[in-house]
Design brief:
Elements (H helix, E strand, L loop, with lengths): L1 E7 L5 H18 L4 E9 L2 E9 L4 E8 L2 H28 L2 H6 L7 H5 L1 H9 L2 H7 L33 H11 L3 E5 L5 E6 L5 E5 L2
Parallel strand pairs: 1-2
Antiparallel strand pairs: 2-3, 3-4, 5-6, 6-7
Helix pairs in contact: 1-2
């Protein structure tokens, strides 16, 4: 810590300067080495006065002491300055430990002008007769329809696996459709009659005989 000494109508002895340096070293451990300080010694009639001013990064500390000797006055000023530095450090540590929720709770409540503006309307609604309020509480169902129908372009693919080449019975056709994992199968029986076997949306298989 950089310390500047000023003497007014007094003389700063080596012992007095060593006492000031020791006290400033203790305060520097609390506030940090970047702080700057000035110590002023003066005489006021029969009293000796010592004034200590410390400029920290977030706070300015001012302390003074008055006694019969400069040593006693400096001791008082250093004790007051060190006490202020400790309180400043404790408050800073406590503010860092404070949870975020507690910080939010200390904020002033947000006013809601809309709720106050709606209060006259609520009072006017209460002033209306019971019949009017009963009519106002009627629920009306509103159905909305799209402006236009959604048009889905057809996607046509070739499905040669949907045609069975060899004749088979209906039971064999059902098994063949399950085996191929297909919902549509065109086949012919042993007599040459053609059928279409397809799965409906309800999951049941439907058999259609072709003319």
């Amino acid at each position: 810590m950089e310390v500047e000494y000023t003497a007014r109508q007094v003389k700063i002895s080596k012992a007095l300067r060593a006492q000031a340096d020791e006290g400033m070293e203790r305060i520097a451990r609390i506030l940090g080495k970047s702080a700057r300080a000035s110590v002023t010694f003066s005489a006021l009639k029969r009293l000796q006065v010592a004034e200590v001013t410390i400029q920290a990064r977030l706070q300015t500390i001012v302390a003074s002491g008055e006694a019969d000797t400069l040593e006693s006055a400096l001791r008082q000023a250093l004790e007051h300055a060190e006490s202020q530095a400790r309180r400043h450090r404790d408050r800073r540590i406590e503010s860092k430990r404070l949870p975020t929720e507690e910080k939010v709770l200390t904020a002033p409540p947000v006013s809601r002008p809309k709720a106050r503006a709606a209060q006259p309307e609520a009072e006017a609604a209460e002033a209306k007769p019971a019949r009017a309020r009963k009519k106002a509480s009627t629920v009306i169902a509103v159905h909305s329809f799209p402006a236009g129908k959604t048009v889905v372009e057809p996607h046509i693919v070739s499905a040669s696996e949907a045609i069975a080449l060899k004749p088979m019975t209906i039971e064999e056709a059902v098994k063949e459709a399950e085996f191929r994992d297909r919902d549509l199968l065109i086949f012919r029986n042993l007599k040459g009659e053609q059928y279409v076997l397809h799965r409906r949306r309800d999951g049941q298989m439907e058999l259609v005989e072709l003319p």
